[in-house]
Fold:
Amino acid sequence: MEELLRKLHPGTLPHCAVLHTLASLSVANAFGVVPFLPSVLSSLLPVLGMAKQDTVRVAFCSALQRFSEGALEYLANLDRAPDPTVRKDAFATDIFSAYDVLFHQWLQSREAKLRLAVVEALGPMSHLLPSERLEEQLPKLLPGILALYKKHSETFYLSKSLGQILEAAVSVGSRTLETQLDALLAALHSQICVPVESSSPLVMSNQKEVLRCFTVLACSLPDRLLAFLLPRLDTSNERTRVGTLQVVRHVINSAAAQMEDKKPFILSSMRLPLLDTNSKVKRAVVQVISAMAHHGYLEQPGGEVMIEYIVQQCALPPEQEPEKPGPSSKDPKADSVRAVSVRTLYLVSTTVDRMSHVLWPYLLQFLTPVRFTGALTPLCRSLVHLAQKRQEAGADAFLIQYDAHASLPSPYAVTARLLVVSSSPYLGDGRGVAALRLLSVLHPNIHPLLGQHWETTVPLLLGYLDEHTEETLPQEEWEEKLLMFLRDTLAIVSDNAWICQLSLELCRQLPCYDETPQEKNFLYKCIGTTLGAASSKEVVRKHLQELLETARYQEEAEREGLACCFGICAISHLEDTLAQLEDFVRSEVFRKSIGILNIFKDRSENEVEKVKSALILCYGHVAARAPQELVLAKVESDILRNICQHFNTKDPALKLCLVQSVCMVSRAICSSTQAGSFHFTQKAELVAQMMEFIRAEPPDSLRTPIRKKAMLTCTYLVSVEPALDEQARADVIRGCLHSVMALLPEPEEKDGGCQKSLYLETLHALEGLLTSLLQRNMTPQGLQIMIEHLSPWIKSPRGHERARALGLSALLLRHFLEQLRVSALVPFHNLGLLVGLFSPRCADLWPATRQEAVDCVYSLLYLQLGYEGFSRDYRDDVAERLLSLKDGLVHPDPTILFHTCHSIGQIIAKRLPPDQLISLLLTMFEALGDPEKNCSRAATVMINCLLQERGGVLQEKVPEIVSVLRSKLQEAQGEHVLPAAQHSMYLLATQHCAAVVSSLLGSPLPLDSHTSMLWRALAVEPRLAAQVLGLLLEKMSRDVPFKESRAFLLGRTPDRVATLLPLSATCALFEVLSTPAAGPAVLELYPQLFVALLLRVSCTVGVQLPRNLQAQERRGASPALAARNLEPCSSAVDTLRAVLLRSGSEDVAQRMDLEGGWELLRTSAGHEEGATRLARAMAEHAGPRLPLVLKALACTHSSAYENQRVTTTAFLAELLNSNVANDLMLLDSLLESLVARQKDTCTSVRRLVLRGLANLASGCPDKVRAHGPQLLTAMIGGLDDGDSPHSPVALEAMLGLARLVHLVEAWDLRSGLLHVAIRIRPFFDSEKMEFRTASIRLFGHLNQVCHGDCEDVFLDQVVGGLAPLLLHLQDPQAAVASACRFALRMCGPNLACEDLSAAFQKHLQEGRALHFGEFLNTTCKHLMHHFPDLLGRLLTTCLFYFKSSWEDVRAAAPLFTGEQHPLPRPQAAQQPCLMPPLHRVPGAARGAQAAAAGGPGSAHFGAPDPAEGPGPRGADQGC
Structure:
């Protein structure tokens, strides 16, 4: 301190830090600093005028404030001060000097911060001012402070300083305050009315300081203050009223002594605020009443009004509580009017002892009025506390004197009220617990005998509530506990008068619960329970009649409650209850006319329906609750008689009541011990009526519980005798399933909890019904019937329907398994059908459905084990694996899902009896067309698994399996089905190949795409493909390829119709060969395939389809496709082509494509050429494969079918046209094969044999010489084939000889040369150009081979042929003329005439134009010159052509004749022997014979007849 004092230099402004330090120190250590204050002030006050800066002035103000506060603390604690001699006078002068500067100079500053610092300092300084100075300054000081309220928004410091100034003024007994009071009150009141904002703590502090000011004024001027405040309570302004109530509450608490005699005035002034509905005003009023309770105000007259107000606020509903939170509360509900009121009532009841006699038993009167229902919980809690305090005070203090308190409710009313509100225990902050506790505490005032029992049972009820919450409490069970509590109470009391009085009070309270249906329903139950305990029948009937007359039938809950009341009452008074109902039924109320006491006079038709509904429910509850030994006698005569007459109603509410009542009646019958012997005659009628009600419900929505109740009714009725017939059972099952399964998916809990609850209850009702029906027929057949009804829903395209159906199926199967009792080993004959139905569902899109499907399969497997004789507790390891697989079905990954399905299939395969396998497979095939693709896929997985595991036992069932699979492929839409079906076919074929092939061959033609794919599936594995191909080849060759039609028998051209088996086999071969995987098998069987298909092609040329297939072909959408697929020859050609492609012989196929060979093969006219081209292509591109092909063809020469022999011969013949025959050492075998066919009965075969032999000339010319004799013999033999002048064999022989004569040995040829020349001579003049050309060219080749060295006999043939050759130069066919040129050129050397030969070579060159007349002239000159003796023969031969059918030849004959000049005929002896005798030449001999007969050949040559015109050009220049 000394160090700080040294910092104070006289006449110098101290540093601000020094001032702050001194100020803080004076507050923190007042005892150490205050003694030095006079010296400090003496140093500081002289320099106050020197402070010009606001910061310095603020520092001085702060220091003066702290100094004053320190001094006041020091003075207030002088007894502990170090220097007790210090007095206020020691500071007064200095403080006043500082006050003068601060108030008169610095307070006028414009700086707000400085003004606040001045005001803050003036507060504590005012306590140190001299009394006379303070009194003198107050008229200026107070207005100056109040004026600052308008200048500053933050008024906390102003209010704080003002409070200190007022305290100082009051402490000195100032009279100035009275003159300033009005201004003060107005200013302070305006401050207290400022709305409090929780975000501004200074505002809250300001209010506290303002209230402090009011406290100062209340203690000094209470009358003036109340005169100011109380009138302001009457204002309607919220802020004014709330602020005033705050001041009043504060004044009541802080100035209790001054307000003692003002209590009546204050109470009376609260009249209008009590009526205010503003929540803020209400909260303020409650706070004022709380303060009044603590200070004895409520004991005054009018205090009951305040208590009632508190209770009213406790009863406020939650929706009327304020939405905005209070200023200092985080929870809006904590500061709500109701919350504040509840706390206030409880605190007043428990902490203010003086209020005990005021509240007890006064609060009891608030228990029964309906308007105070919301306050029951706080009321009961307060009353419990008050009652316990009274009990502690003594029994006399606790017992209520009802005579002295007429307004209090009776014990019956209290009992009824508390018991009924306990039925909804969690409403109103748990009023059930509070009500039961109060009821337990009040037992001496209710009945003296109840104490011990209630002390035991009420804690049990309270414990039950503690175990539950509002969400988990089972309402029916809780109500039953309360009713049991009531029954026990009534039994203990056992006083009919008391019971009747209680029942009367219960009836009286019925209108109190019109807005709370649940509690009113319970009240009805309480009434029924009480009446049941009453012994007076008159009272019972009277109350029942009153209930029927006064019930509000429009309310559903009330109808239900009334019915419950009658039912409970019927437990003890069955006869009276039924009699009262009967009386009411007969009353005018049911006839829509004036009723009892006219109370139903104006009711409409709808209201009467409601009355009927209630009465029908009453009958139902009576039947349900009445003693079982009595009810059966009354069911049909008294109960159902009054129910059934209303079945024709259309009113939904009445329908529901009817169904519900019949349900209760049915349940009562079933639960009776005499039900087994009871014959219910109305059973069928009731079941039919229930089904009518069910069918009338909307199928897609669940709006009412009618269908649930109706199904429950049917469930009970099913078990009653007599049993339903099969049709009725089916109708019940079908109708109930449709009414539940078709419902839309159940709503989520957040969207509609009640709706979901109704759905679940309806589903449980359906489950119970189906279980009950199954129980009546616990056989495999009965189970199958139930599942058949569920089957359409199991396969539904809607997921929720499938899920429901699977759930029901699983339930039925579990029930069947649990109830299974097998006395003898019998087969479970429908196991396969059921497993096949459920197992594909293991892959359903809905996880719940998948789980249920596994459960179904699991139960079925154990059912099978049960039928096999295993005990119920036996656990099979294989079947138990299903449960472990369920986890895999939860996973959405398709790979995991279908792997799990495969595992399930393996389990099924291991446990399924062999006789059930086919039914399982057929059922699964049905699932291939399932609209749910996942299930369809699962079916394929399981089918293949079963075939793989157990396919070996299915041989006899293969045709059926194949047929069903094909038909299902036609129906199935999924792209996954076909690959799976292919795999199934593959698996089946690996075990029963022959059966599969035979079955598939039975497929109709043309093959559809699915059947084609099934065939192709058999080629995926080479070994199986080879086996299939072999079987198909066998099938193709087993039957005849065609059958002759009846047209042949009628003499017409026979029609050949293809047989089906070879045709099907051919088509199947094509499909198998179309698969790339068949390549290895095709290579293995290449020779057999090639030969078989080549033979198939040959024998189907020109073969027609069967008529039924022709009709399909005509109807086909694509004729080209149909022709390719169906036409026998085309299908065979396509298949042969497929063999080549699949075997790697693509070059062969392409060569055939380019040359049009395939098309030729298909036609009768081009087939031979097609086979030839095929052989040529094979020789060129597939030579290495020919040896095996030829080996396979070896046996075909003896084929019964001519076409096959022709085709193979053409194929073999063409092979000799290639050197591949020699390269592969096939020549001998080919020649041998062809020679063997020389004697074939078919002309075409013999012709092709010759062609093949002739092909040796081009294929292996070096081998011709070695085989020359054989070849020549064959060819010469061909010339003599048949008697036909146009034998194609002869033509082929001439063509072949023309190719061979140059290659054979000369000596081999000479032996037959003459024969050949003679044999071909007739063909020179053949009508067919081919024969003329071939014979003339062969004649030329023969001459060419002789090379001028021919025998005379042949030379004679040459001479004899000159005339035809010369004339045929004019043949109309160019080929013939060309052949003649060639032949003449070749004849020239053999005539030993160089001139003639030179002429032939000159004029007859190929490609050179021939002037026939000139050439003929030249030729004739040479002939006449060198061979004059031949002219006769030539002329004789020419004469034959004068009548030629060819015009040009006919014209050339006279020309040729005219060119020869007639010469003297020499003597025969003089003729040189140039030629052999004419008779040795057949042609010459015929010419001589003709001449002898006077034919054209006998004419002599001479000049032409002038009548015939001039001769040919150059004729006059003849010899």
Remarks:
- Residues 54-76 form the longest helix (23 residues).
- Residues 99 and 122 are 7 Å apart (CA to CA).
